[in-house]
Amino acid sequence: MFMNRLSIKGGYGEHGRSCFLLPLNPLCAPQNGSLPVQHLKGAPQAQEERYYMLDCGIMDTDPDPYPQVDPDLLARTEYLFLSHCHKDHSGAFEEFVRRGFRGWLVTTQPTLDFSGIQWEKTIILENPKGDGTDEKHLDGGLSFSYGMTGHCAGSVWFHFHDPFGSVLYTGDYQRDALAYRTDPIEGRTADLAIMDCAHVKEMGDADSLRGKMTRTVGRWVKDGRKVLMPLPKYGRGLEVICMLRKSLPHARIAADRNMINLILKTLAYPQWLKPEALREIQAFLEEKPEQRLGSGSYHILLLGDTHLENPESRPLACGLSDQGAAVLLTGRVKKGCLTERLLAEGKAVTMAYPHHQSRGDFLKMAGQNDFRIMLPFHNPEKEIFWGRPESQLK
Ligand SMILES: [Zn+2]
Ligand SMILES: [Zn+2]
C-alpha cells in the first residue's frame, strides 16, 4: 500500500502551508500525519533513512505558521523540491534551515529569484521543454520529470519515480491560464497523485469562473463605479490584466508602482508566458497605467498589495471605497487586515480567480491520467480517492 509512505505536514485539509514528505529508502517509518498503513515488503534495505520533501509552505494567517517537521527528519531530508515562489509553498525554508535542513534544494530560477531564497546546495532546473518527458536523475534512486503549471513564472509540477513507485505532484496548477504557459498533465501513470483542488466547491472551469468575474466587474463599470482590485505578488496580476483587456476592452485600467514592478520582474522570464499574453502585457504597460492612477482617469485600479497592508495603499483604498468604489478580492482574506474590515462592512466582495484547479478541473485531470490514489490538496476538506473519484462522490 502506497499511502503509508506519505507524511503530510501541511496543505491537506487546509488552504496553505503545503508540505509533503516521502521516503527515499525502505528504512523510513511513517511519521505523524501519515495515513493508514501496511508494512512495506520486498524493497531493498538501505543503511540510513532519507527523505525527499515537496514544498515547505507557511500559513501566514496562523500564529504558528510552519509545518511541524522534527529537526531529525529535516536533517535526513536529502532533497527539497519547491514547486513555486508563493509563501504557502516556500515560506518555511529559512526556518527549516534553522531547524536542521542541510539537503539539496531543487527548483527553477524564477522561483529562487521571487522567493528570495539563497542556498548553496541548489539544483536549478532549466526551463521545461514542454512535453514533460525530459527525465532528471538524482542520487538515491530518485528520478523525475517536470513541466509548467500555468500559475506563475517558475511554477512547475513534478512526476517522481522513487525506489517504491511513482508520485505526481501538481503544485498549484491551472491548465487554462491566460497569461502563463502550461505543460498539461495528461496520459501519466502514478501510484499517488497529490493534486491541486483549491476551488473545491466550484465545478466550473477557468473560463466560466472568469466569465462570472468579468460580468460583475463590467456591471460595476457600467454603473459608473470605480473598481479596486488588490492583487498578490507574482502570478494573478498578469492573469487579471489579460482577462480584463480581453473581456472589457473599453475599460481603462490603472496600476500602482508595486504592481508595475511585479509585472516587470515577471517579464524578465518571458519563456513562462504565452506569446500573446506577453504582447498584451507590453501593450498594457505602454498605456502608462501608473499615470492613470495619478490623474484618476480609470475604471479599474490594480494594486500590488493583496491584503492592503502597505501604508500608501490603505488611505487610497479607504478613500475610494468611501466614494463608492467596489473592492474585489480574489484570494484568501488575512485576519486583521483592511481587506477583512472592508468585507465585514459590505464594501468588498470576494470572487475566486481560477488560478488553481476547481473540483471540475480536478475530476477532468483524474480522467485524463491513470492515478491509483488521489489526494486533492489546497482546500479545507480531507478527501482521498482510491481509483476513479466520480464513483466515490455523491
Ligand atoms: Zn501559488
Ligand atoms: Zn498555493
From TrEMBL:
<dbReference type="GO" id="GO:0004521">
    <property type="term" value="F:RNA endonuclease activity"/>
</dbReference>
<dbReference type="InterPro" id="IPR050698">
    <property type="entry name" value="MBL"/>
</dbReference>
<protein>
    <recommendedName>
        <fullName>MBL fold metallo-hydrolase</fullName>
    </recommendedName>
</protein>
<dbReference type="InterPro" id="IPR036866">
    <property type="entry name" value="RibonucZ/Hydroxyglut_hydro"/>
</dbReference>
